[in-house]
Amino acid sequence: MADTRIANDDEDHHHLLELTVRDLDSPDLEKSASAPSLASNEIIPLLDQNQRPRFNIFSSSSYTRRKPREEVIKVSESEISPLTQFASWVWSGSRYSGLLCMALSSSLYLIMELLSLSFSVQPIPLFETAFLRCTIILILSYICLKRIGQPVFGPAHARKLLVSRALVGFLSLFSFIFSIQMLPLSQAIVISFVNPVMASIAARVVLHEKLKITDIGGLACSFFGVLFIFGPTLTVQVGSEVKTESIKGNHHIYAVLLGLFSSITGGISYCLIKAAAKASEQPVNTVLSFGLVACPAAAICMFSLESFVLPAFETLISMIVLGLLAFCAEVLLARGLQLEKISKAANVLYIEVVLSQLWIFSTGKAGSSGLFSRVVGCLLIVISVSYTIYMGPAKDTE
């Protein structure tokens, strides 16, 4: 048994804390236990004017009635919704978490594309759209980091990587916006899906990741699937552009080169996202750093290169919804790259093409022309991504 004593020294104004340990079998303790003053189940502190004041560190059983820890844990787990449990499992509860995050990110990008096509009630310039989207991403990233108690600008040792990721990501985004304004949609899509290939090559050079034959074969299979899907449309558009070549001049070549530059910088950006997310231990920091650079840059381009269009209420709501989805997609992308090897994580991004084709087939918008090549392309991508998911996390332990 232990008694704690506190003594006050008026001259030095110091407090002395004394802890006395007694043997439970001692006769003094038995006498004190049999005294009438201690008949209750609560031990009363002994106070004497001639002695140093005491207080007992033990409390009665009536004040310590708590539920066992196991019961508290069970109650808290039962109150968690299935959606929250699934999100926690996807984020860090499975060895497939990296690939699952990439798949969910691709799915969200597809949902954004479908929403923009279905609910576009008012045409908005691209830089204005990019400005609002980057602003929403910046605000949500800041709120998220403040709520979880992480430093907004990341740890000091990771800030160079975060700044590099922001600058390279900014170059990739804005070069893609410029190229998509001058290229047909199918050509822009094909060039944008060179990005995973460039990311794998950049990972081999920058991060020294091992690039196996199976990784190269998976990426090649997926990219050929994209060519099978968009090949017929691409041929028709190229043929129609030959007739107007005298009007366009060399603008088409510049647009293609700008699109390739966007893919190269996008691949390097993936490597910087992975390195910065690992260094800062928080993928949201990479999203915030990108917003800090892209938001003011988009504002400058919006006012200097385009005419500002005031969006209607319905258009503004749809743009805000797309901004929220973009934030979730960016965070999942950063988390997937943080957890998984880049060549495998980037290959999962091709699943967006398959999902878009399935949506076209389900809505009956797919014409008979090029149907066989589309089916072959989807099969190639499905085989490649399935093999990556089957072989990836079990074999690669980084």
Automatic annotation (TrEMBL):
Principal place of residence: membrane
Q: Which residues form the EamA domain?
A: 101-230
Q: Which InterPro entries match?
A: EamA_dom, EmrE-like
Q: Does the keyword Transmembrane helix apply?
A: yes
Q: Which GO terms describe its cellular component?
A: membrane
UniProt keyword Transmembrane helix, yes or no: yes
Gene3D superfamilies for this protein: 1.10.3730.20
- Mode of membrane association: Multi-pass membrane protein
Arranged from A to Z, the UniProt key words for this protein are: Membrane, Transmembrane, Transmembrane helix
List locations, semicolon-separated: Membrane
The membrane-spanning stretches of this chain are 96-112, 124-145, 166-183, 189-207, 219-240, 252-273, 285-305, 311-333, 370-390
Q: Which domain of life is it from?
A: Eukaryota
Q: Which PANTHER family match?
A: ACYL-MALONYL CONDENSING ENZYME-RELATED, SOLUTE CARRIER FAMILY 35 MEMBER G1
Which protein family is it in? Belongs to the drug/metabolite transporter (DMT) superfamily. Plant drug/metabolite exporter (P-DME) (TC 2.A.7.4) family.
Name used for this protein in its record: EamA domain-containing protein
